[in-house]
Write a sequence for this structure.
């Protein structure tokens, strides 16, 4: 269905429509004509309001779940409200501090992203989601620090100055000189490459027996490359926090919808594909209900904003998933602020 332009609604219809939508988003319940007639902002009788509601229903903007019930916005009506009528509110100082506190955590970027997503989830009462940027660090130097006879700390230094440590199980009979030999070999051969490129080169050299390494040192190099490559492959592409917010008193009568939504959140690959569509833009994207096939059954909304890396390119997406009756005016700016803060962190 094509969406009626807001300019085609007269002042009376716009006022009634706005009050119905705002009332529904605040309570999750249909809004009746008597409720609207009691508001001081309108000077209309319940009968006049019912006539306007009927007109809006015929336009596909409102719907009545039951014959005697009030009206609630359709997905088409919600889209019209979000795009043309909503007055967004900036995040409060307390909300900004809560988001920034999560991103101030030291440690791997994934931990900061997870903390910020949890904060966004708590503030919005939705499930928070973030796509973690796939990083392929360019290598500069390797090192092995012995911990005991059976383990060493494998140290990787990237061209950007990042340092990553992993505990590595050692092959039998490895000596300190073998650790130095393997580290020097890796630093000399693989500097300037990504892990994938280094792994491919090592495989070619070992296959053609052109490697200068023998025995335990050769196995040590193979284990060092493998542990980082495996770790990179296992890093979460999508972090979801706060699914419990999707189950509240208002969902008790709609548990099937919630069950479907939680199942959709478990299928992270499908969610990731949806969020990837937000990578191409520079602005926040809003998906309402069946506008996206993934949420056509659960009737959920997604608000997603891209964030940028050090070079200014979009590297990930952060956002929330919740019921269509989100407080869009509050949550959209909150997602925007989180994306902007993430972009500053990634610089």
């Amino acid at each position: 269905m094509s969406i009626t332009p807001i300019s085609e609604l007269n002042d009376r219809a716009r006022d009634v429509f706005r009050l119905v939508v705002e009332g529904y988003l605040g309570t999750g319940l249909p809004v009746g004509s008597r409720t609207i007639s009691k508001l001081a902002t309108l000077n209309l009788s319940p009968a006049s309001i019912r006539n306007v509601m009927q007109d809006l229903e015929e336009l596909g903007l409102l719907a009545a779940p039951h014959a005697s019930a009030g009206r609630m916005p359709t997905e088409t009506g919600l889209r019209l409200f979000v795009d043309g009528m909503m007055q967004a509110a900036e995040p409060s100082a307390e909300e900004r501090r809560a988001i920034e506190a999560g991103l101030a955590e030291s440690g791997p970027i994934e931990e900061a992203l997870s903390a910020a997503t949890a904060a966004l989830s708590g503030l919005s009462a939705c499930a928070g989601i973030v796509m973690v940027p796939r990083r392929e660090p360019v290598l500069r130097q390797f090192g092995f620090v012995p911990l005991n006879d059976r383990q060493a700390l494998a140290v990787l230094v990237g061209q950007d100055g990042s340092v990553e440590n992993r505990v590595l199980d050692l092959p039998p009979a490895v000596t300190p000189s073998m650790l130095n030999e393997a580290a020097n070999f890796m630093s000399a051969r693989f500097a300037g490459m990504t892990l994938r490129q280094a792994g491919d080169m090592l495989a070619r050299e070992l296959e053609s027996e052109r490697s200068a390494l023998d025995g335990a040192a050769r196995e040590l190099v193979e284990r060092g490359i493998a542990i980082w490559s495996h770790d990179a492959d296992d890093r979460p592409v999508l972090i979801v926090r706060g699914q419990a917010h999707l189950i509240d008193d208002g969902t008790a009568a709609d548990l099937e919808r919630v069950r479907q939504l939680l199942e959709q959140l478990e299928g992270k690959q499908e969610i990731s594909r949806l969020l990837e569509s937000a990578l191409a833009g520079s602005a926040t994207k809003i998906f309402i209900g069946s506008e996206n096939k993934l949420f056509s059954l659960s009737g959920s909304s997604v608000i997603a904003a891209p964030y940028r890396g050090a070079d200014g390119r979009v590297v990930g997406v952060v956002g929330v998933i919740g019921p269509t009756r989100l407080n869009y005016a509050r949550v959209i700016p909150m997602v925007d602020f989180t994306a902007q803060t993430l972009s500053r962190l990634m610089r």
